[in-house]
Structures are given as structure tokens and as C-alpha cells.
Amino acid sequence: MKILHIAAALLMSASVLGSCSGNGGSMSVNVADTLLSVDNLMADPLAFVGDTIQVEGECSHLCAHGGTKAFLQGDSAGMTLRCQATPEINGAFSPDCAGQHMLARGILCEDRVGRAEIDSLEREYMLAQEREAALGSDANSKAPATGHCDADARAKGLDSLSTAAQRLAKMRSEIDKRLKDEGKDYISYFYLETISYEVKE
Fold this sequence. Notes:
It is built from 6 helices and 7 strands, in the order αββαββββααααβ. The protein is α+β, with helices and mostly antiparallel strands.
């Protein structure tokens, strides 16, 4: 089980590669007047990267480690948006958000993950396997809680796969397809750098 926990954490580490402009430029601070649902946003997220937008949906999960991430669920299966807490909201979402309808305002950012990043994640995964083998059965008793990792995998469409190797293979396959279809040698994940939010009654 610990390998699955480590794998989820490794996949989350790809988020440090993100860009809020989509092209390496400066972030936009223009506020969009239109209120978007998760489904509407995820239908064409590239159109909003770098923009300040408002998104509403049900908070299906709140990160157990300090409430730094909230996940808004859309109406369609597989439509989930990660909302990342920022200093503007004191670095965390309120525990009251979980299970509630929520309106979040922030800057839509894009994480780009290419083959080099996946290779790096695979090396980290292999090292983690070696460490777990060296620790033996004691490793399982020290496994961290991973609810937030599972939710992040769901937002990336990777939750149906049970091992890190399967998830990494799917990411490689998605890169190959995107390169063939669009000429882009990376995959994109989107999240909201949240600067304000409210729980809707």
C-alpha cells in the first residue's frame, strides 16, 4: 500500500512545473465577469489560462493536510478542478467547505508535464520502492494519509489506475497522442490559484 501512497505523492509533485500564463509570460489579473461551472471551464480550459475567473461547484474533497487544496466537482463524470489556497485566503480553505456548494475566484494555471518530468517521477518512484524494500514490513505502519492524493489523481483522470507504473504509462501515452494530434510534447493539468471563495447556501 505504501507504494501506492508514494506514487500518488510523486504525481502530485509535478505541480511545481505549473505556469499561470500557459506560455511562461506574466499572469493576467483581469477579472472575468462570467461565472463558470466546472464543466464549462474544463470544456476549454486553455481559453482561460492566466485569467482571473470565478468557478462554482460542489467541494467534493478538502485536503486533510491543512486544507490547502479544495476540489470542485462538476456535473459530468471526471470533471474535477483543484483549487489551490494562496496567502490571500490565509493559505487554507475552511473545513466548512467540504461537501458544500462553493464559489471560488482565482487565476487559472496550467501544469505542463513532459517526458523529462515523467522520467524524473519514475526514477523517484523506483528509489521509493528500493527504500520500502529496505525498510520491510515497518514501512506500511508509517504510511501517510493520502485522501488528498487520491482526489488530485481524480482531477487528473488517473484515479482508475492502481499503480504508479500504470499512471506513468498513461501519462506517456497521453503525451504521444497529444504530440500526434496537436504537435505538443506535454500534457496539461489545470488548477485554480484561489484568491477568494465563499460557501453558497
